[in-house]
Fold these 3 entries.
Entry 1:
Amino acid sequence: MNSPRRVQHQQTDRGTIPVYATGVVEQPWDTYTKTDHQVWGQLFARQREVLPGRACQEFLDSQNALQMTAEAIPKFSDLNPILKATTGWELVGVEGLLPEFTFFEHLANRRFPVTWWIRAPEHIDYISEPDLFHDLFGHVPLLMNPIFADYMEAYGRGAMKAHGINEQALLNLTRLYWYTVEFGLIQTAAGLRIYGSGIVSSKGESIYCLESDAPNRIGFDLERIMSTQYRIDTFQQSYFVINDFEQLFEATRPDFAPIYDRLADRSSIPARETLESDRVLHRGTREGFSTDADT
Ligand code: PHE
Ligand code: CO
């Protein structure tokens, strides 16, 4: 039975989240059921149909290079040699969301924690916490990109530092992760594309983020993002667009200590707002937005 072992709950700015065993676990590949492999296959095939022309080419190419297919749930032990040889990253199996500091330590050491269990068929379209499909299909391909790979490591180190500063600094960094790693868009010569893992692993949001008139699409601005609230219960109300991964890496290279100080004096920006100072690529109509407050 592939049910995760839930050990405790943690109160964060995102509400109460389950936190699992902190240890690394061996991917229990032999225990995956036929249904588990089918869920993977169904989600894989569906996303690979939606994503060409929507996800950035690096994402699709890297997924191919990793030889992920709809056939079966990939083995971490098959992916690791390819990842290792390309950017030095390594996948480690986990039960689910880790305590923040443990997660950051993994990133800082070029280890990406991947939840070993996959969602049940009745939750094929939506689950409220990351599973194997989100982590593996969504996050792992871009770890093959050298610049993105460096960004993720730098993020891990920066977050360990922020953890030792204060709650506010950590919240600023959590927002950055959310609007880049999870929900980022990228401007390419071929058009606007997705690179965020939270989007590429969701059929609905893969289409919505690019094609709906409702959400804002705003040019990347580090400090702006770091003070922007976000939603965990709906599709995003604003997406931020980078020009390339270099921009992301360069913008985050400076020491953030003075930035945290500066941001501490500013009030945070609701997810649906646009500002005078924004480079607005699309101003959202807000159609269908719920009226309740952001997280
Ligand atoms: N440069 C940041 C700091 O000094 C660290 C960081 C790197 C944060 C990449 C986010 C992303 O804190
Ligand atoms: Co994620």
Note: The pocket of cobalt (II) ion (ligand 2) is lined by residues 130, 134, 139, 182, 197-198 (CB under 6 Å).
Entry 2:
Amino acid sequence: AQRKLEEKERFAMLGRISGGIAHEIRNPLNVLRTSAYFLLNAKAPAAEKQHEHLTRIDRQVAIIDSAVTALSDLARMPEPSASSFEITSVLEAILCDMKLAGNIGVEQDFSDDLPLALADEKQLTLVFKNLILNAVEAMSAGGVLRLSASLQSQRVVVVVADNGVGMTPDVVSQITEPFFSTKSRGMGLGLPITKAILEKNRCEMQVESEYGNGTTFSISIPSSGVQS
Ligand code: ADP
Ligand code: MG
């Protein structure tokens, strides 16, 4: 009976995923078709108009490309290759690459007795990119991003907290389902990918959120025991 149930869940998941792909890709395809049609059929279109359509094509291709990349990340999540690394450097590099709006403050609290994290560095980088991006998106009206890293029972615990829009318990219960998103342009793949990576890397995730007040994600990562 257990196997039947799992099979049923897998099919339900497959249905959601294929529905999601169709939805994500159909929109940009329609825009592409319209622009291609214009470029093929318009008699002597103004250079300006041509440029507008080509820019649109370029943007839609980028949207399809990121949807496909996210899906293949999810579908064939490679086996992790663990190494020891400084999680704080990963967090700092992500912040450095991200252009944060002026209305977003950042507070960091990294304890200095931190051992090295033991996991796949690239995969964990993707996890924290997703979490930090979500935190920032939850604070479109401004706020403070709080990042902390500490040692707790031999594991490195990283906390990503925001004081943004927060979530209701109902939303919290769905956030790791593929294609679940409350955003108008959200793909809903960030947290499913995050969850898959964390499971493969023997990491754990906890979420606390209060609607209207903010959200805190805590990630616990195995440590190498060696101080960084
Ligand atoms: P996306 O960001 O594309 O919507 P995710 O899988 O990254 O997809 O997140 C799924 C949903 O979880 C979001 O649409 C949002 O409703 C909720 N969520 C995730 N992180 C936060 C956060 N820090 N604050 C509020 N809501 C969040
Ligand atoms: Mg996201």
Note: Strands lie at 83-85, 104-110, 115-119, 143-152, 155-162, 204-210, 214-227.
Entry 3:
Amino acid sequence: MQEIHHYIDGSEVKGTSGRFSDVYNPATGEVQAKVSLATKAELDAAVEKAAAAQVAWGATNPQRRARVMMKFAALINENMDKLAETLSREHGKTLPDARGDVQRGLEVVEVCIGAPAMLKGEYMNDGGPGIDLYSMRQALGVVAGITPFNFPAMIPLWKMAPALVCGNAMILKPSERCPTTSLMLAELLKEAGLPDGVLQVVNGDKEVVDAILDNDTIQAVGFVGSTPIAQYIYGRAATNGKRAQCFGGAKNHMIIMPDADMDKAADALVGAGFGAAGERCMAISVAVPVGDKTADALIERLVPRIEALKVGPYTAGDDVDFGPVITAQARDRINGLVNSGVDQGANLVVDGRDFNLQGYENGFFVGPSLFDNVTPDMDIYKEEIFGPVLSQVRAQSYDEALDLIMKNNYGNGTSIYTADGDTARDFAAKVNVGMVGINFPIPVPLSYFTFGGWKKSAFGDLNQYGPDAFRFYTKTKTVTARWFSGIKDGGEFAFKAMD
Ligand code: NAD
């Protein structure tokens, strides 16, 4: 059985805890490796070494740090297929989707090549008589990234690239379900010139996460995962005086107005609802057509499209639409929620339960399901299903559809399909959700904007990547400087305006 270790000081290091977690191939259901779960002592030792390595890295000029990112971007491109294959083997997503996972992470690395421009700080000469003010953006020291299973390349890259280019050292704790991609990325970073110890990949579960949160040297924690864990991490990190940005779960709605292009809306819903088996924080899981005529027209278009979806292992070729879900527990939970939808009175139009794939009977496959007449009191509406299940909630007006989204606990992404610019503008202005698509189903912003949800989808006040990342991973120091011309006037004791 293959063992997956930690990556400390530029090389693979065996864990000492004797505790492991199974890493599955979700397509076959087989355990393909065991990943070491670190102890608090292992984490503390990794942090100590990271802190030592950070001193020289933080003092390296930004242009040189940016060059490491430039080389890293080239190496990611060179290794794209290898990274995607590794990722698919542990996660189950199709190869084209896995390449997209790497690509959207790579784009953040590309923005980090321009880091020196983001790290310049501010300057004002003659803010008072003979007084100049300037602010510097300085690295925090050692920071941590804790990432989920569903984007094994993209989210670690969203964490590590900005943190490192700002001059920090990072402890990365990837998902124990898909750890290998992060280890590969760490090796590529070394090849790109990152000094040993500046990035430490420490594998583990709650034990190591708690050790991160309680470690006094770690200055900031960037987390992505489910809402209950995001809220927990935010609270404990803040109590311990750390900066924290914690991104959580989602329930993303798409409004379909009567004037929308229905075929385009149906295509978008199928891709955004079922791509990656619905295991995306930006998946559309709720369709909200306005008016029964729109709802009926949508169902008529969705059913054949959903029934034609090809579900299979990533090895079956590029025409597979989505793969298995991550674990047997995830599969059983999704099927349980579909059962609850039926019990609570929703209309199951396409039934993905009991999906069976010949030759892959032990894989964690779930077929696609479509519900109509879902209401907000049902568990399938309230829970983030994180599986290939699309729910249609019928609204009778635009205001009712908007109100539904406004009242939902989550606020990650949302979308509207309409031909009317006025409705689209009103929606974008009013909706209390962080990322909005207009005739666009998965509005993950490009890497020079920022990514973040509202409400229970994010805790903390800065978004991931883009300009916010440079603010999150640096602290500001502001200097007020005066140079006397050789004459000492004596001290000033009153706190006064600079006049
Ligand atoms: P998860 O919350 O189970 O795990 C995320 C990380 O937290 C992992 O590294 C895991 O080891 C750790 N963890 C798990 N339980 C913990 C505990 N009790 N104490 C401390 N640490 C713990 O999430 P997941 O299942 O890996 O990922 C799916 C979730 O992530 C979904 O809810 C999805 O919406 C969300 N997600 C959000 C975003 C976003 O940007 N908002 C992006 C991707 C995924």
Note: The longest helix spans residues 40-59.
